[in-house]
Structures are given as C-alpha cells and as structure tokens.
Amino acid sequence: MSPRWEPDPDVRRGRTVVHTLHAHLVFVTRYRRGVMNDEMPTRCEEVMRKVCEDFEAGLKEFNGEADHVHLLVHYPPKVALANLVNSLKGVSSRRLRAEFTGRVNRAIVHGRFWSPSYFAGSCGGAPLQAVKDHIAQQKRPD
C-alpha cells in the first residue's frame, strides 16, 4: 500500500494560478542604530503580521535584534514585493515611533525608523540549477 499523497499547505491555488512564493526580507534600522528594546520586536511582528494579512500574504517567521529584523513572507503573485515592503516598513515605522516615543529618539533617526534600503531574497522551491536542468531537458516541439 503506497502512502497517501498530502498536498503542500504552502502551495496556494487561485482561479488561474497555482503558486508558492516566499521571500526572506531584512530591514535595518536607520543608521543601524540599536534602537529596539525587548518589547519592540514583539510589537513590530504584530504590526507586520497585520500588514501581511491586508495583502493576503502570510508572515511565516519573524525575528530580530536591536538594529534589524528578519521576515519570511509567503505572498501571492498579484502582490508586487516592493509594494508589500513599502507598507511593512511604513506602517511599522509609524506605529513604533508613536508607541515607543521615549525609546525612539527622532534626533537619532531623523523621523525615520528604517533604513531606506532592504534585503529581499527569494526562497523555497528547487535550487536554481535544478530548475535550469529541468528546463533544458524539456522536449521541444518538432
């Protein structure tokens, strides 16, 4: 008896698409100053989770330190990653600066919480070489 195949919960289905898109995101505080205390990453995660929900995305993992945070986001193909990042950084910056005014000194960060740059890496699925090999092995129509 063969084992029953179970669908991958990370593979989402839409009307015209089947997808599993994940991105590893890293946001660094402005000037890489260690402004986050022990409470701030927890609140940051809550805010970013809500932003992801608004985009029909999922925040799969979150962790951070005093000067940066890491996110693993599962997002649909209709979402432009740059737009999601813009909202994640913008909303979290406003909320954290408003809720932790004593901790986040505007003179240090000049009215901005996050650095304007960020890291985004695609992740999940097969290694790039395996995908290249698969495409190369496809039969061309005669």
TrEMBL record:
Cited Pfam families: Y1_Tnp (PF01797)
GO molecular function: DNA binding; transposase activity
Alphabetical GO biological process terms: DNA transposition
Signal peptide: none
Matching Gene3D superfamilies: Transposase IS200-like
NCBIfam families: transpos_IS200 (NF033573)
Name of this chain's protein: IS200/IS605 family transposase
Species per Swiss-Prot/TrEMBL record: Streptomyces taklimakanensis
Gene name, Swiss-Prot/TrEMBL: tnpA
